[in-house]
Amino acid sequence: MSKDRSLDEFLGGAAESKSAAEPDSTADPDAESTRSDADVSASSATAARAAADGTAGVDAAEPTFRWSPSGATCDACGGSAARRWLDGGRYVCRDCKEW
Predict the structure, then answer these.
(1) What confidence tens digit (pLDDT) does each residue in 17-41 have?
(2) Across the chain, which distance is largest between two alpha carbons, in Å?
């Protein structure tokens, strides 16, 4: 791959506006709310955004590559590798990855 691309290009939607991610400035900071009320509000807002941008029903992405500066254990051979790729549900080094 020669160029980094935004995930929005693959979904066909525009990037979420910054103002939608910012908290409501008119909200009362001293108001009390229960955790369940906050969770319901967050879920509703997330569902509304997903419906608006066409991502409703899209599964969350799973990383296919991991990088650890000090190295991490390969799930196949047990060796240490800074770069590991997802292969059959396990993160493996370059030598163990089936390309």
Answers:
(1) 444 445 555 555 555 544 555 555 6
(2) 56
